[in-house]
Amino acid sequence: MNDAYHWTKVLHIAAVIAWMAGMFYLPRLFVYHAETTLGSDQDRTFTVMEGRLLRIIMRPAMIVAWLSGLALASQAGFFDARWLQAKLLLVVLMTGLHGYLSRCAKNFAAEENRHDPRFFRILNEIPTILMLGIIILVVVKPF
Known about the structure:
The protein is mainly α. The chain has one domain. It is 82% helix and 0% strand. The chain has 5 helices and no strands. The longest helix has 36 residues, at 41-76. The model has no long low-confidence stretch (mean pLDDT 97).
């Protein structure tokens, strides 16, 4: 592989780490946010934190992860590989979860959250499960 491939892989790994950090942290913020009183200073602080995390870290990292990942797959000719197709399915699910978390943040900002802290504790486990599946597919390439 050429230097561009390796630098693209560095970019991809960095973007995935940033995106996953947000995917782990945002639901944890929701746990604490769901425990606050609507309209309180704490409520407003969590709303700002969640919005910034999404806009400044998570969304750009997700976009870079997608673009660099597709570039890597194209450069290496992996699109016919079944492991990559399975990985892409899990990444699509992760992206859908990202969208759902964005909706939850908007609901908190509009003071329309309908979920208790327990819901967000359970939701917080989904990125871990998806991430482990993605890592297994990339490293082991079981098919």
